[in-house]
């Protein structure tokens, strides 16, 4: 259990002259719901991109279960049980909800490339089993009636749910959510809170970025606060709420970009 | 829509199965050409339609299959049947080797590189590199196909040979859509970054698409060489690749769409032969109009190929 740890040490990512993430260290332990917060442009998404292999940090190390994953490709990192959602939803928009979720079963499927040319009884069974799993996720996320609907014709809130279902289809150990409540109404946000708790119930560690402070304070066990790429505080939600540095960072920007 | 596709596919297959007996020799030749070019267009659909890669060099793989059969038969005396596996495997290997360094390129760059490949290929043929391609005239006098002691040299026999190859290709296309690899191609076309982030090795599957497309086109090339018992470079020029590319886009990257596209591009011109100077003018405009009026093609590919048990009625009338 304790082995499912994500440890970032002095991770630095630069874009030209801009240091988007500056010597960030943090530790996500098994079973936690861990939050990363900070004003717009603080570098939160960039940190997630460095963990999931979309960017390679120039310096530092990203260790997952004791293994260095910095420099691996995104699909290699998914194969190790880390999967993510995007701040700007990225679904396969022309394809149906079920097909989108099925993409998460890709690495779990036992089919080889040759089965695409010539199926075998084994590959048909594998196909069936994975679609059954998709069925379970459709049910879990209450998406059954939209199974055959192309995701581009769904409202925002449902698209967010599909993206989470797709990520969970991977059977991840660590689920990374980039602003899962962005664009959701109050009802949907309340459902999201329940969903996050029930995901943790399944033994999945959750790492999330969120601007909705109410949600953050409700669900997270531990927080890291970024500003201008640097960590300015870490601690439990209660500690963070009282931290003067954090209050200052937020007062400086909250009003302009309260979305 | 699903029912309609299935019914039209069945009608198509039945008509195609009896067709040669209704036609004279000239039209039988046209029909074989339709079958062979359909196979090439479907192979192009795997690369362009499914995986979304702008490959403008499919005629090269088609030509390679044709030349492999021609060279092995006329220079090395191999029976035609024995050349077929090589006519598939050689383009597959070439496809993999050429695709590996270029699949990461953005659409427009990939397009230019594949055009370059096609041009180099035709130049190699014309300049008779290695002294086996026969230069600009190509290779004549290829043997007919012999199977189980029968000589399949009549147009009808070749028709059924080509028809069998088309059926095999259709089977592969249908299997692909119901498999992990086939879906992976759709995912990476829709959003490569999302595909990669959900665990798909996009590079590997792009190369797979190139290799599979090349192998099928190579097989079609082998049939083509057998049909005319001759091969020459101009049949595999880059302009042929442009036609296959257009067929997939105009057709809409579905099986019926691609078949209609091949019919419009290769069979209609034969039917309107009297108006020969006008026909390409008309087809050029038909292409332009289709893309403006139906940007997703004549018969667009549909998704939602999901098992029935997942499709549920909306709850409580909502
Ligand atoms: N690909 C990129 N190229 C150049 N600069 C980038 C790139 N990605 C991010 N940045 C910059 O890095 C900084 C951090 O961006 P990032 O997206 O990580 O912020 P964030 O904390 O996620 O903000 P938000 O809350 O708005 O999502 C910003 O100044 C941004 O402009
Ligand atoms: Mg962000």
Automatic annotation (TrEMBL), chain A:
Q: Does the keyword Protein biosynthesis apply?
A: no
Superkingdom, according to UniProt?
Bacteria
Any one GO CC term of the record:
plasma membrane
The record places domain ABC transporter at 6-253
Under InterPro entries, the record lists: AAA+_ATPase, ABC_AA/LPS_Transport, ABC_transporter-like_ATP-bd, BCA_ABC_TP_C, P-loop_NTPase
Give yes or no: UniProt keyword ATP-binding: yes
In Pfam terms, one family for this protein is: ABC_tran
GO BP terms: D-alanine transmembrane transport; L-alanine transport; L-isoleucine import across plasma membrane; L-valine import across plasma membrane
Its signal peptide is: none
Q: What keywords were assigned to this record?
A: ATP-binding, Nucleotide-binding, Transport
Molecular function, one GO term: L-isoleucine transmembrane transporter activity
User: What PANTHER family does this protein's entry cite?
Assistant: AMINO ACID ABC TRANSPORTER ATP-BINDING PROTEIN, CONSERVED COMPONENT OF ABC TRANSPORTER FOR NATURAL AMINO ACIDS-RELATED
Q: What is this protein called?
A: ABC transporter ATP-binding protein
TrEMBL record, chain B:
Residues crossing the lipid bilayer are: 27-47, 59-78, 84-102, 109-126, 158-176, 207-230, 242-268, 280-299
What would be one Gene Ontology cellular-component term for the protein?
plasma membrane
Tell me which CDD domains the record gives.
TM_PBP1_LivM_like
Q: Tell me the keywords, alphabetical order.
A: Cell membrane, Membrane, Transmembrane, Transmembrane helix
An example Gene Ontology molecular-function term: branched-chain amino acid transmembrane transporter activity
Q: Which organism is it from?
A: Pelovirga terrestris
Topology in membrane? Multi-pass membrane protein
The source's superkingdom equals Bacteria
Name its cellular compartments: Cell membrane
**Name used for this protein in its record:** Branched-chain amino acid ABC transporter permease
